[in-house]
Amino acid sequence: MENSAEKIKQAYQLLNLCIVCPRDCKVNRLIAAEGFCRAGVNIRISSALVHRGEEPPISGTKGSGTIFFSGCNMACQFCQNFEISQEDLGHKISEKDLAEEMLKLQKQGVHNINLVSPTHFGPQILKTLVAAKEKGLKIPIVYNSNGYDDIEMLGLFNGLIDIYMPDIKYGYGQHASKYSNTPRYVESSHLAIEEMFKQVGPLKVDANGVATRGLLIRHLVLPNRISGTFDVLKYIASISTEIWVSIMSQYFPTYCANQYPEINRALTQKEYQEVVDYAKKLGFESMLLQQLSSSKTYRPNFKQKDVFKEAKE
After folding, report:
1. So what's the pLDDT on residue 309?
2. What is the DSSP letter of 311?
3. At residue 312, does pLDDT exceed 60?
4. How far is CA 143 from CA 32, 127, 129, 166, 292, in A?
5. Does the reported pTM lie above 0.85?
6. CA nearest 37: which of 150, 186, 165?
7. CA–CA distances in Å: residue 265 to residues 4, 205, 253, 257
8. Domain 4-312, CATH number (from 3.40.50.10490, 3.10.450.50, 3.20.20.70, 3.90.180.10)
């Protein structure tokens, strides 16, 4: 791939005084120092598996080849994946071995390689993707992030990532600080979304409804309008109503949510429906919606081999 060596070099320079994400910890991760995300130079993953519970254009009929990375550059007090994002469950893996995992998943017939919480390992993932593609990785790559991404790092991914599937978690900066200890989240996520959209445009699907390229934005609706959903949707619509939006109702209070009475409960049908009605009013052409019961069926357990076993039963 053209200029891949130079891209890798530039990416690893971002780890020197780490500015891989908007938090800009400026620690030298090349000598094993750790920033807010608790990540050093070595990749850590929890699982590499066939995931059938993502959005329909991502999971399709054959599943998504999903890799869950350990650690996170945010600290969401309600994180549904807290065992890996906050408690760092997982193991180290080299770029070479991670590339092999991707190729193994491709051989299992999955529609794509789905990188979950990749932001803090951006340079290492870039190097991995270059190696995997040189060895025959051909299926689309999904960048599945929390939206707190650095546009310089995203620029280096241009041409390597086929599908961006970020969250926009908040419409209000004060809530991003309170519930996720994340400064400048709103403005940073907006810059990231605009870079992603510039690279890949609206989501495109094949004849079977499976995504091949483009942007799909997720938004988890929190109780009591904590997530600022109306502002989030208004912002997305200002870019393009052709952008696919996944409006998620699967919130359930977990991790440290019980410390905040205002989010220590599931959504009500009324809360979710008002969001759906507003999205329709804005004119979105493609919306992915969930049943309210998803808050009970989506309960991952990263301490077991089959992460989503309970959710299927």
Report:
1. 64
2. H
3. no
4. 25, 15, 12, 7, 26
5. yes
6. 150
7. 47, 35, 6, 9
8. 3.20.20.70
